[in-house]
Structures are given as C-alpha cells and as structure tokens.
Amino acid sequence: MMSILKTLDFFTAHQKLDQLSSGRCGIEKEGLRYTQQHQLSTAPHPTILGHSLTHERLTTDFAESLLELVTPAMKTSTAALTELNNLHHILAHSQADYLLNGSMPAYLDDPESVAIGYYGESNSGKMRRLYRQGLAIRYGKAMQLIAGIHYNYSFSDALLDTYAQSQGTVADRQFVDNAYLNVIRNIRQFGWITAYLFGHSPALDASFLRGKSHCLESLDGDTLCLPYATSLRLSDIGYQSKTDTIVRANRLDDYLHDLRRSVLTPSPTFAALGLFGADGKQQQMNTHLLQIENEYYTAARPKQITEPGEAPLHALQSRGIAYVELRTLDINCFAANGISQAQLDFLTVFMVYCLFNPAPALTVEQEHHAKTNLSKVACCGRDPSLTLTDKDQQTTVPEWGNRLLDAMLPIAIALDEANKGNTFIDAINEQKAKFDNAERTPAAHILATLQGDKSHAPTSYHHFITSLSQTQYQAMHQIELTPAQIRQRDTDARQSYDSAEALFAASAAKPFARYLADYYDQIIALATN
C-alpha cells in the first residue's frame, strides 16, 4: 500500500483534495434525565417526544431515564452538530427534567430500581426490552447507566474511488470492506488517543460503586477518582464484558466468524443466572457469551444499515460495511451538546488518517496489547511514568501521541488547503498542547475543579455535573422553539407512534418465540470461512 504522503500526492495531482472532507458524519449522544432537584428521574419517557422504539432521532437506550439523541448522517460535522443542538433545544422545551451532560451518573439512590426501557408489545419492542433485561442481570444496572458519544463516519463513494485508483485497483465491495476494516484496526491500535485527549470522566459519584470493591481514591466521601485517570467510563469499572472475546477485524469473514461464534457459544456463567427468572418469565435472550452482536463492547464497530428484524451480522455479510461507529468518546461536559466542533474537526482528520495509514493484520497478542493500552490510558493516562506497548516497544503517552499527531498533520494541511482555512491544523495543534502538558487535558481540568484551589472551594462530582448540566439546560430553555422546530417535534412524534402501531399489528402473525428463533437463524446460517 502507498504511504500517506504518496496517497495525498495522488489526490493533489488529480485535483481531488476536496474529497477528503466529503464523508458523512452522524452523532449519537446518550444522557440521563435528572429532575430539577438533581435526582435521577423516575418518570417514563415523555409522550410528547414520540415512541422510543420507532422515533428516528429521540429514543431511549437502556433505561426509561437514559435518552439517546441521534442525528442523521450529515454532509458536514458542522451540520451534524447543528442538528444535535436542535435536538437538545427541543428536549429543553419538552420535559421538566434536564439532561445530565456527563458520562458517569450523578448520585444514584438505588441503581437496581431503575426502570428498564419499555418499547411496547410488538415483537421488536419485546426483543429490545428483553436484551436490556439480560444486560441488567449480567452486568448490573449501574454499568448500563454510563453515557457516551458514538461517532458514525462514512467515506464518500468519490473518495473511495480515488483512493482505490491510487492503489491501482477499483472500489468494489471487497476494497471498500477492507478499507473500513483498515480503519477499525487503526482505531484499535490508536483509539487510546481519544481517551487521553477527550476523556471527561476521571471521577464519579461514590453511589455508583456502593457495596462494591474498587481501587479508586476518595476525594470528599461523596466522590471517587483515580489521580491520573482520563476516562473511568472506558476503564474496568465502566463498559466491560465478562468474556475476553477477541473479534478479529483482519477480514470481514474473520469479524463475522468470531462474533457469530460468541453469539452461539454457551456460557456457564450466564447459564447459572437462568434463562428464566423466579417469576417464570424469560429474563435474557439466551445464556450464551453474547445475547446479540451489540453486547460486544469494542472501540469501533463496522456497521451496515439493517432492515426491520434483520441481524446486524446478516446485514454486514449481505451488503458489506457502510460506515464505522467510533465508541471511545466521553461526553464533553463543557460543551452544551456533549461534543465540540474542535473535537469533530480532529476526528475528521483522525478518520482519514485511519483510512490512509496501512494497518497490517493484527495478531491476538497485538489485540491484547491494544486493549491493555486503552485500559491503561483510561485509568492513568496522565501519569508521567506510564508506558504503552507500540510494536513490542515501550513508549510514553506524550512520545507516541506526538508521533501520531505529526503523522496526521499532512492530512490536516491537505484538508485546510481544500477548504481554504486553518480549521484542521488548529484542531491538531490544540490536541498537541495536551501531550505537551497533561494538565491541559479535560480530565485534569475536571479534577482540579473538584479539588479546588485558592480561587474556588472543592466540590463533589455530583454537585459539579448537576449544576453545570442544569445551567446548560436553562440556557437552552430560555431560547424559544421556532414554529418549524415545534412542527418537526410533533410530526416526528406522530410518525413514530404510527410506525409503532404498524409494528404491533404486524407482530400478531408471529409469536415472540418464533420471532427470536428467526433472528438467531440468520446468524446460524451465516457462511464464514
């Protein structure tokens, strides 16, 4: 494969630099609803927002109180951020609760009493709820209340065509699949960089770990932290699977084979929990390593848009990879929308870098190194003595981080040349400052705020994140909705209820047990090598 510089030279020679920023960007943001008295809301999903199963932009994730805001795939990151802001604005005028703008929950009275999301009595609604019930008994409800940002990115057909030409081939399905898998392998190796640069969860409320053993330090009795942490969300106390499954991303068949095996392999641990509860009702989808593909926690996923009732693995095998979902982003509590334009500009450069930078097939050992690197940075990424494993060599976070940013700089320069500005170079330089001085990371800023100094008193994580989130909500609420926004909210809600009714009517012809069996039959029937 060509080097990055030679690839950029090819795009320049063919006057195609504008294609570097022609991809589509979508953002999914999760957030817990808290009352104005700073308690986790126990109210059901607001009816004015539509049906949580079928609404395309406003839904719930694990719990009734865990909202998920979903933008469409937009032509620019600016457009995606504008749409995300629009959704926040609509929320601020459609419910009394505010959205907690942080990854780790504020005070939790009793996590196990949290109401799991309800999606109606259609087969797809029952399946979505049953999957979440399974997550609850497998991992506990508290873990499922952690929120994050998912960044979806696809490259344009035009860019992929030019890139294929630069490699002396054509952008057929195999080339496109391999290109996206190259991106995913690079994200696995370098995904720790987003935890360091954008980690916003070095501390949490002590109630999150009530009754559990841990190694965190106490700040004030109500707040726990790790002194050099960047993202507790990505650490061992955050999103974790109870299996050490490695799902290879060297070929699409590898990915399908490994994930299929995990969905179909029985787990003694989960079998011991019981497929059915004491009340005789089914409480998890199966007793295998994974209930479904989504249970596999990873830094990035290859994605294809699914048809109703279609398993994601079937969609990938049938139609290939359409985009990549990056999952290592904490919510940026200092940005009212949970993510900033500067972050999105950096991610544009990062995604193009992950496409153009050749990523050889990863061995199982290298996969483990990558997971360990991410875990280390999440827990203690700002520790000056920390080392990571890069190609069997030990290196410090600043050394490796600066090398990566230097390698990304030519892409930023090319993007700015095409867009006639300095946006992308500025985004790289802003991140470079964080490697030069770890105190400039958002995680360090948050801890310094919690610890206090001569200018301000110490504060708990609960008070910090609820006060900040409520202030952001109030600022949104002060701006009236436009008639167009009201029409959008009401039309989207009405359409979601109509779609939910249609799903319910269609479900009458098929028992739920048959619906589940048909879903798994798709996975069983996958032909992988």
Question: How would you describe the overall organization of this protein?
Answer:
The protein has 529 residues and is of the alpha+beta class. It has a single domain, classed as Creatine Kinase, Chain A, domain 2 (2-Layer Sandwich), CATH 3.30.590.20. Helix content is 46%, strand content 10%. The chain has helices at 4-13, 77-92, 123-139, 141-144, 157-166, 173-190, 192-198, 252-264, 268-273, 312-319, 341-356, 364-380, 397-419, 423-436, 442-451, 461-477, 483-507, 512-524, and strands at residues 24-34, 58-60, 66-70, 98-99, 149-154, 203-205, 217-218, 223-225, 300-303, 323-329, 387-390, 393-396. The strands form three sheets. Strands 1, 2, 3, 4, 5, 9 and 10 form a seven-stranded antiparallel beta sheet that branches. Strand 11 and strand 12 (393-396) form a beta hairpin. Helix 6 packs across helix 11 (341-356). The longest helix is centred in the C-terminal third of the chain and has 25 residues, at 483-507. It is globular. The model has no long low-confidence stretch (mean pLDDT 96).
